[in-house]
Amino acid sequence: MNNQYFEQIDETVFEETLDNGLKVVVIPKKGFSKTYVTYTTHFGSLDHSFKPHQSDEFVTVPDGVAHFLEHKLFEKEEGDVFSSFAEHDAQVNAFTTFDRTSYLFSATGHVNDNILRLLKMIESPYFTEKTVEKEKGIIAEEIKMYQEQPNYKLMFQTLGALYHHHPVQVDIAGTVDSIYEITAEDLHLSYETFYHPANMVLIIVGDVEPEATMDLIREHENKREMNEMPPITRKPFNEPQTVSQSYVETKMDIVQEKSMIAFKFVPNTISDKVRVKNDIEMMIALDLMLGEQTDFYQALLEQDIIDDSFGYQFANETTYSYLIMAVSTDQHDAFKHAIFEELRKHIQTGFNHDDLERVRKQTLGEIISSLNSPEYIANQYTKFYFEGVNLFELIDILESITVESVHDTLTSLIDFDHTVESRLVKKNG
């Protein structure tokens, strides 16, 4: 077992890759009453076209398989496992994203028992055609519930306009039609391909003893008879650089109209650290241009062009990258004009050093404060692990950022020819 001490935040990370390929990370938090554990596979909703092990041919499974599989792994022949965790002072849950599926529990007692319970739950799939059919109605209702929400509608309407083929435009849960196409065979095929220990990471954060915890997991995993994992081959998306539609609009029964401006970028393929650095630089640029403390924000607020729903998000992943800015407003043209003008101004003039230092200190404070949360550490450590970066390296990356690098990233990404304007307007407006 290796350990690495991060002096700036006084944290030690213990980690080991077991013989079957499973990466195990233990982060002790002395004095914490709660232990948080995540068991994650690098398999999300984007992974719908891949080569199964022992096959040279790509297969495509219906949208929503990763999320569907997440649901089914809680079900066992003897019933679901929720009550078993609850009886041992733990709450269990799971979530699926575009690129991973995480199973987790938080516990105040019986930590070792619950770790083994979580491992066995994920490593012992049980589903039949009958139980799969039963689950479809449950997930369909979940999808319909989200589709009725205006913010959800606006987001996926925008992604659908940004992308021609990329599956990021499809809800992580799939569509009502796609989940009714899913079979038990699709779930088994996906499980066998992506739930190999070498494609997974287990993270334990809490008041635990690293050596004893690692011994427990090592002993359990050594009992599994796993062959070495063949390389996983995902089918490339071949997404054009252009947007699919520059303008989209939907009429809905809504109280407040909504507007979203989006930019489509070519993903950075130079290196994982550069991509994460660009991610932070772009978020700093956005805070400096559009944050609540800026003259821009206050001016648009006074003009009733935006309200406190205004927000922005930059996604910078290996296969897709975009920037969105959204608000509840009926002044759609004024909102778009103001956003474009502010971006153009800063591309031309750059940023102020003192303003950058203020945002950097604020961001650093937020990161350090978040490290008191076992949930934040485990979930973010997992996210950055699959992106090829150690969570605790973020502070070094943040300190390496300069006014010039923030401006360079903004200038290199923003292209006004690759934008989408997306609106939700009142049906009878």
Describe the protein's architecture and organization.
The protein is of the alpha+beta class and 429 residues long. It contains 15 helices and 17 strands. It has helices at 65-72, 82-86, 111-123, 129-147, 150-162, 176-179, 184-194, 210-222, 272-290, 295-302, 332-349, 353-370, 374-386, 394-399, 403-413; strands at residues 2-6, 11-17, 23-28, 35-41, 49-51, 59-60, 75-76, 79-80, 90-96, 101-107, 200-206, 233-234, 247-252, 258-265, 311-316, 321-328, 419-426. The protein has a seven-stranded mixed β-sheet, sandwiched between helices. A hairpin with a 5-residue loop joins strand 2 (11-17) and strand 3 (23-28). Helix 1 (65-72) packs across helix 7 and helix 9 packs across helix 15 (403-413). The protein is globular.
